[in-house]
Amino acid sequence: MTIVKQSLFPGGGSSPLCSLKTSLLTVAVLTFVSLFYLSLNSLRTSPPSPVVVTPIHVPQTFAKEDKTDNNDDDGTAPTTGEENYSDVYHSPESFRLNYAEMEKRFKVYIYPDGDPNTFYQTPRKVTGKYASEGYFFQNIRESRFRTLDPEEADLFFIPVSCHKMRGKGTSYENMTVIVQDYVDGLIAKYPYWNRTLGADHFFVTCHDVGVRAFEGSRLLIKNTIRVVCSPSYNVGFIPHKDVALPQVLQPFALPAGGNDVENRTTLGFWAGHRNSKIRVILARVWENDTELDISNNRINRATGHLVYQKRFYRTKFCICPGGSQVNSARITDSIHYGCIPVILSDYYDLPFNDILDWRKFAVVLRERDVYNLKQILKNIPQSEFVTLHNNLVKVQKHFQWNTPPVKFDAFHMIMYELWLRHHVIKY
């Protein structure tokens, strides 16, 4: 007998459970498709316009401290007032903040060793072409930055004056030995060199013989901070480690120039010795030109009193070619007398180059541009010349030495450069 199972549900349909599962699956698929469509549609629409907030312009000025804030028995002359330097700095606000921090915290220890009557502690003099070396040695002792406690020092100053050695007739070979023996003595006596292998030590020399004397020690060249007047980065000068010291011929023979553009009728001026290739070319190409005042030699004093210096007052652009070294005191002479310096010296890391925008107050050329020099200068519009001149007046104080030192002068700018380099690892 055949048994036929009768469906439990009329009409042979599926169970309610299956119908429920099917319905839920359908709803899920429809929901997924709807969400996908909405997402796709939102991607195709344009994003909302950003809210533009107009920045508030705050003039960047360096407020100078008053007498009570800037004369903490440290020998630093007080200054007052406020000046706007936004036109000549790469980053005015960064300089303002870092400078203020430097004045509060920076400390330098000067090694006391060495006989002051020989080659240590003081240079031969603080005048002439190498006055910058002498002024620094003097200013560091007058300033708030000196500390007698080596444990709180950020940097250590090695006070060897090669200028003084040169004055005593010491040979290059003996200079190298003297410097090496002095440094070896410091390393043996004190623990500070070995903590950083000399990376937090520095020396200052403006004469090229000083550079040569210190080059006798590989550790001094490789590790220490060199503050030198001849910062040529094609012969060992390392810009991020070493510091360019401005060569300043002080005292200046005449007062500072500036704000006198109407008196400057000569296009360009240079007079000097032909002791470099670029100077030879400059004299040969332009010596007889009627618009450029180019002299083959320094102007003879017999022609009149301070004739050479007075030429700066009458000139728009003063040509500054490198001499036996890349540097020249003529650059700071030009700045002091209000004449736009024209830099004609390759591989020259200009003083304070990482702080000051030299192209805002000087004309920086390559040596090969000497052949087109006159046309380059004539192509500078009068309005641009006036702007360069006004900016030049703003930076004059940075290339001036004082005793006691004055805020923002050459000494403080060098200290600021050292402050930027004082972060080293101590072992």
Highlighted features:
427 residues; alpha/beta; six-stranded parallel sheet; five-stranded parallel sheet; 14 helices; 36% helix; globular; disordered N terminus
Structure, described:
This protein is α/β, with parallel strands linked by helices and 427 residues long. The chain is built from 14 helices and 13 strands. The chain has a six-stranded parallel beta sheet with strand order 4-3-5-6-7-8. It is globular. Keywords: Glycoprotein, Glycosyltransferase, Golgi apparatus, Signal-anchor, Transferase, Transmembrane.
The largest beta-sheet arranges its strands as: 4-3-5-6-7-8
Low-confidence stretches: 1-14, 38-61, 63-73, 78-82
Strand content: 5-15%
Our measurement of the CA-to-CA distance between the termini, rounded to an integer number of angstroms, reads 104 Å
Whole-number average pLDDT?
80
Order of secondary-structure elements: HEEHEHEEHHHEHHEEEHEHEHEEHHH
Number of helices in the DSSP assignment: 14
| Spatial shape | globular
The Rg value, from CA coordinates, equals 34 Å
List the helices and strands and how they pair.
Blueprint: H1 16-44, E1 61-63, E2 82-84, H2 92-105, E3 108-110, H3 131-142, E4 146-147, E5 155-157, H4 162-167, H5 172-189, H6 192-196, E6 201-205, H7 208-214, H8 218-222, E7 225-228, E8 243-244, E9 266-271, H9 277-286, E10 292-295, H10 307-313, E11 315-321, H11 330-337, E12 340-344, E13 363-365, H12 373-378, H13 382-395, H14 410-420
Parallel strand pairs: 3-4, 3-5, 5-6, 6-7, 7-8, 9-10, 9-11, 11-12, 12-13
Antiparallel strand pairs: 1-2
Q: In a few lines, what is going on in this structure?
A:
This protein is of the alpha/beta class and 427 residues long. Helix content is 36%, strand content 12%.
